[in-house]
Structure formats: C-alpha cells, structure tokens
Design brief:
It is a single chain. The chain is 25% helix and 16% strand. It contains 6 helices and 11 strands. The protein has one domain. It is globular and about 55 Å long. The strands form 4 sheets. The chain has a 5-stranded mixed beta sheet with strand order 2-1-11-5-6, with helices on one face. The protein is of the alpha+beta class.
Length: 264
C-alpha cells in the first residue's frame, strides 16, 4: 500500500512538468469525459473544471476482483452502443473521438501520447493538427454512408511517429451515437445533443466503484482510510490522463485545486 501511495504522490507532484503545448492552448474544443459506468459519489469533478463529465449508470464492469480494474475487462448493460464498442475494442479507456462542428466524428484514437498534440490519429494525422483543423479552420469530415464495422479490432497498426497504437477508423464520418447518459447531478443527457454544432473531444475512463476516491490523493488528511492499492493505481492513471488534458489544452494544473481543497 505504501508503495502505491508513493507512486501516486510522485505522479501528482510531477505531472505538471509536462509543458502546455502552445499549439493546443487557445484552440481547445469542448472536452467530454465519458465514464464507462456509474459515478462514484466521492469523485470530485471540480478538480478538473474545464472538463464535462458524463456517466453510464447502467453499465457494469465484469470483474471478479478489485484488481481486475487495472486489467482488460468487459462491460455489460446499457447503452448497448458503448458496451458493444468497448467489448469489441472499438473504444478503449483513455481513447478518444474528435467531432467536427456538424457533430460528425472527424477522427479517433485508442490513447494519447504524453504530448497530446503529437498523438497520431486514425486518419494518419496528429491530434494537434486535427484539433486545429476542426477548431480553427472549421473543417468537417465527409459523411460516411457505410455501416459501422463491429468486427473485433484485433489488427491495429503501430505508428512510427508516436508511441501510441494507431487504430483503424470506426466512427469516423458518422454522427455521435444517439445514446442517453447522465451528468454528475444525475440529469439525463443525450450525447448527440452535447456534441452537435460544437467541436468536441470525447475521451473515456472507468472510475473505481469502491472506496473513497478523495482518500487516494496524497494531500487528503481526513478520517477515511486509504483505498486499496488497485484503486490508487487506477486513480493515478486517470489523474494523469485528465491532468494532461487540463494542462495542455487549458494551461491549468489540477494540483492547485487539490491543494486548495485540502488547504495545503
């Protein structure tokens, strides 16, 4: 447990050493974070003030033990589109969809590089170039008339330019799925309505369902015990991912919000 806490502390103190990429600042799209399951009521969205969080309360992770949250797992439940896409490798934790201002998927990817702008997308261009195209140049993708290919994604190609694996297009050219999610207050939200007429970057996470997530942060000094090593490891990865987005798109350091919350 101590090793897990130390590892999380190192990440918390070093994450903002990643410099904000100048080509992403001032051209940030709307950022939507979809949690592939219900909201853990202890998760504090305010630490990441520029991100819009949505949840799938009727999705359930198929795990046998808490340690499985840091391994490959499947999900079941509704929306069927998300469960089917996740189980077939069409979307992955920390992956993304980028939508243009007509609400169609412009490009997508299975993960983000440490320098987000250099992430290579399914269209062969970097995420930085794609964001510039949809936000600054108002470019749109040609709508696709093809049906979605639900065949399990098992043959991905490795990018020679970046450290991420480049995925084959799945949703590119199609509108956002017409699915119902909820916001942090439990209000129903239609994803297609959220991304319509607004360049949007959608990314995916899975929040641990057990434990007080506040106690995973090193500045927490309350009475609640630390969560398990599995939860701390999961939260460290989520914190890294969301902090990269906050820092490189909005020049905001979530560590400031955490220190203010815990009066450090």
């Amino acid at each position: 447990m101590k090793k897990a806490i130390i590892l999380f502390s190192i990440i918390l103190t070093s994450i903002y050493s990643i410099n904000a990429q100048p080509n992403l600042i001032k051209m940030a799209p709307q950022i939507v974070v979809i949690n592939l399951g219900p909201k853990n009521p202890t998760f504090d969205e305010s630490i990441f003030p520029h991100l819009k969080f949505l949840y799938a309360p009727d999705l359930k992770a198929n795990i046998k033990s808490e340690n499985d949250i840091n391994k490959h797992f499947t999900v079941s439940g509704e929306p069927e589109f998300l469960s089917k896409a996740f189980n077939n490798g069409k979307i992955k934790e920390y992956g993304f969809w980028l939508f243009d201002n007509k609400g169609n998927c412009y490009t997508e990817g299975d993960g983000m590089d440490i320098e987000i702008a250099s992430t290579e997308c399914s269209n062969g261009k970097t995420l930085g170039d794609n964001v510039k195209a949809v936000v600054k140049k108002y470019k749109t993708v040609s709508p696709s008339n093809k049906e979605l290919d639900w065949k399990h994604s098992g043959n991905l190609k490795l990018s020679l330019k970046a450290s991420t694996v480049v995925k084959k297009p799945f949703l590119t050219g199609h509108p956002a799925p017409d699915i119902e999610l909820v916001d942090g207050n439990g209000n129903k939200v239609n994803l297609r309505s959220v991304v319509d007429h607004k360049p949007t970057l959608v990314t995916f996470i899975y929040l641990p369902q057990k434990g007080d997530l506040n106690a995973a942060y090193k500045w927490y000094n309350g009475p609640v015990p630390r969560p398990s090593k599995a939860v701390i490891n999961k939260m460290s990865r989520i914190y890294l991912h969301l902090s990269m987005i906050e820092g490189q798109f909005f020049n905001f350091n979530p560590k400031k919000a955490l220190k203010a919350k815990y009066k450090k």
